[in-house]
Amino acid sequence: xxxxxxxxxxxxxxxxxxxxxxxxxxxxxxxxxxxxxxxxxxxxxxxxxxxxxxxxxxxxxxxxxxxxxxxxxxxxxxxxxxxxxxxxxxxxxxxxxxxxxxxxxxxxxxxxxxxxxxxxxxxxxxxxxxxxxxxxxxxxxxxxxxxxxxxxxxxxxxxxxxxxxxxxxxxxxxxxxxxxxxxxxxxxxxxxxxxxxxxxxxxxxxxxxxxxxxxxxxxxxxxxxxxxxxxxxxxxxxxxxxxxxxxxxxxxxxxxxxxxxxxxxxxxxxxxxxxxxxxxxxxxxxxxxxxxxxxxxxxxxxxxxxxxxxxxxxxxxxxxxxxxxxxxxxxxxxxxxxxxxxxxxxxxxxxxxxxxxxxxxxxxxxxxxxxxxxxxxxxxxxxxxxxxxxxxxxxxxxxxxxxxxxxxxxxxxxxxxxxxxxxxxxxxxxxxxxxxxxxxxxxxxxxxxxxxxxxxxxxxxxxxxxxxxxxxxxxxxxxxxxxxxxxxxxxxxxxxxxxxxxxxxxxxxxxxxxxxxxxxxxxxxxxxxxxxxxxxxxxxxxxxxxxxxxx
Length: 551
Ligand code: OOB
Fold this sequence. Notes:
By secondary structure, the protein is α/β, with parallel strands linked by helices. The chain is built from 18 helices and 27 strands.
């Protein structure tokens, strides 16, 4: 992927004018900056709490609003310019939210990178976005982000500015977050932000390579957050707990943090999603809604067997990112006292929610129905023809908050989008007569391990360079705890037989994120091929799924 070239990616509508006009007329796009609701509530309810972190430190709407202004001014005084990009890779903290809104107000585009991403992913996203700045924590647990930042800066000289939350250490030329905050002179003008311009970049899970950059505009992302907040019944009494990494679309805006701040609610930031942290925060702050992925839910349910904290405030538990087993859905109300809402979404846009009024059966077995009546869905066969009602096909979508392009080459975009602007999601779904969708699988070779997605090809491309391997296929195998586990099926080039451990550390030294490392290794004399000479993944999956002992 080349660096951002086209100014059209940053300014002007990313939708064709006739669609943009319709979305404005219908009131989906309001022409506001993504941080406008924060400004509004800072005036109408200045003293209400906006954020609380894991340590219990809180910030009011008025304080967050002025901290965001000051941060915006500091960023500009630091030398950043509106339209430039900044990689943001921070844990769920007040600093992250302040920096996010500071960027938004200064017209600087945050590129949201997960704390679990490592050199490979960060390099790719920094290069693709042409980022000039990179914000990191000093460390999270045992991982030190400062050498990572140094590596990125050495590889990409356009990343001229490093910002460290915490101790800068020996990181040459870096600025500490605190120093930046102290720098602010509370005067000066902030730029006028064009609401149809890109507000932030999310990243995709990746079907054929590394994650792709997803441009989300002020208009479309504010709609995304507001409309989601409405579906979830959020209001001023809402206390939203963000326990997934905030750089992900789900806790950021579905409705997430932005949704809660759009209705004057409180956001609690969990530093990790462990049952202990989460149950403690729910009890302490009377959390009403949170979002999780199925793997987490299974941990919470297990932990809850031996836990008696008061979780009675929790009204709604959103589950998405990967398919929720109906049996697990049924256990949630009994064990955690909350209603379940299934959310089938994607960083590219489309969101589906089960609704409060849905029958229990639908809530437990379907992945919900689209957020907006102007979400246009097509469910198609391999030739792009709509399948008959109720049959399985690939989901294509177009609508007021679904992107029309990645920041990527024309070839990549031509594969991912149809000429008339539908995003080819790669998800295989079935639509019920009620409009609810059931996710049946994926068309591509993407692995969804504990709701973290990555492409099999990305890992294969690394492993094939390993001197002991002649051939390799990476496949996702069904796993009760993870949804899918990552399995490397290898053919040897000589007599040396690498162990799983060796391959994992080989990938780590190449800067691959930990969540993508294989969980299992199978050695075969040759890979099974299809009639067309391609690796027969389906056959490999069938072969090795059989070897997994029944639970
Ligand atoms: C969410 O977003 P992404 O971009 O990390 O992943 C999107 C993909 C979907 O295309 C689908 O393959 C899978 O994740 N997925 C689900 C699902 N929710 C997402 N598969 C089955 N059941 C579900 N409920 O994962 C995301 C974004 C916003 C809200 C919720 C999830």
